[in-house]
Amino acid sequence: MTGEAATLWVDTSVVWGPTATKLRTIAELARESDVKVVVPAQVHMETYRQERTRHGEAFSIHVFRGIFQQLRVELAEMKLDMSGAEAWGELLCRRYRSEEAWQAAKLKCIKARLPADATFQAKRVPMTTDWLMALEIERRGFYVAVEDADEEWQALRELKRAFTYEETLAWLRARI
After folding, report:
1. Are 83 and 126 contacting, i.e. CB atoms less than 8 angstroms apart?
2. Which of 61, 109, 121, 123 is deepest in the core (most CB within 10 A)?
3. Do 147 and 11 touch, CB atoms closer than 8 A?
4. Which of 110, 139, 144 minimizes the C-alpha distance to 14?
């Protein structure tokens, strides 16, 4: 194993599928490379909803939780307290030096998910939870496996702390 212990958060875009194959592969490699794998609470909630909807009455919370336990994947609680909010705000202020730049960044993320002809007043565009995850990962010096290439992940990509699934596998193998 090389380097110091690291923590890898896994986004919904990578974490789940009908067999959790990607998560399973990441978790197995992570154990060999001294990397702790974490699923943020928001991702857990999204994944829960997806699986509960897919399985209906046949859904089992014990099976769902058991997959995470079996893979030794932890749940990261994210709480928005005063110091965390201020730290995230500081990161955003350094990155987006004007109100216009910040509004444009949020709009760019939302438009990535809406039809091209959708229109909004920039000041009315909400911040997605991906921003909160990306800011917390950056603040704590963690890494993330994420397929999204949207604005909220760009700073982490530039810091070489955000990886696609394939990049995550290569990073983990390089640490063994």
Report:
1. no
2. 109
3. yes
4. 144
